[in-house]
């Protein structure tokens, strides 16, 4: 999906680039597959801020996505490609032969009228969901489960794609977009293909007001603060931070520090993510 540029009628519109939404075929979501979504402005149940710089933004309805894809053997037809404000990927509305409708993540190349199928007997082509043990080695996949029957948890954002590298016994090796090579049980399901909306990473917001409508509040740079407010503060005019590595407001390392701490799943990671 190509990006759309705007006439430079203002400083914000000069460099703004957004998707042109040319593949969106339905404006209103399916009412039965939506539910209300409360805004918590980055606060937990105690009312404490756990995620800074969040708040405001346009109201949204949550689209119920079928991440389990357990409707085996029932053919479905894509009847619409829709925009989802809660995620970067586009979603596809499926109509099954028995009349039921469900949302799935729209793979790249999926069009209205295409047929999809899920289950062990499904063909390994874009949009079909099947166990990893039935997917040929080398196939590009997305929406990968971590545990059989739990639903897709990995590779769900726009443009995301993983690759099935090998299968040995009850486990398979999957290379994730981060560079991780992870072991996954062969009974875990995955969807064939790459997540659509590939141009999402190339968009340019352009205007601060648009960022506010997305629910992001302003963030002040640490070097613009005083020394008592941030470790990077102080100095006359623009100055270096004066330390070996960037830190947070509370003095903890902000870049370069490994953040993976899940020791239970450490044994499933063969190779860690590559350095960017």
Describe the protein in words.
By secondary structure, the chain is mainly beta. It has a domain of 183 residues: Nucleic acid-binding proteins (OB fold (Dihydrolipoamide Acetyltransferase, E2P)). The protein contains two helices and 17 strands. A seven-stranded antiparallel beta sheet has the order 9-16-10-13-14-15-17, with no helix packed on it. It has a four-stranded antiparallel beta sheet with strand order 7-6-5-8, with no helix packed on it. Strands 1-2 form a two-stranded antiparallel ribbon. Strand 5 and strand 6 form a beta hairpin. The model has no long low-confidence stretch (mean pLDDT 92).
Topology summary:
Elements: E1 3-5, H1 11-14, E2 17-19, E3 34-36, E4 61-63, E5 76-82, E6 91-96, E7 101-105, E8 115-116, E9 129-131, E10 140-142, E11 144-145, E12 152-154, E13 162-168, E14 171-175, E15 181-185, E16 189-192, H2 208-213, E17 269-271
Antiparallel strand pairs: 1-2, 3-4, 5-6, 5-8, 6-7, 9-16, 10-13, 10-16, 11-12, 13-14, 14-15, 15-17
N-to-C SSE string, H for helix and E for strand: EHEEEEEEEEEEEEEEEHE
CATH superfamily of the domain at 19-201: Nucleic acid-binding proteins
Largest sheet: 7 strands, antiparallel
- Mean pLDDT comes to 92
- Under CATH, the topology of the domain at 19-201 can be stated as OB fold (Dihydrolipoamide Acetyltransferase, E2P)
Could you give the distance between the termini? 26 Å
Q: What's the overall geometry?
A: globular
Q: Indicate the proportion of strand residues.
A: 15-25%
The tally of strands reads: 17
Describe the strand arrangement of the main beta sheet, using strand numbers.
9-16-10-13-14-15-17
Rg is 22 Å
Report the helical percentage: under 10%
* Secondary structure tally, helices: 2
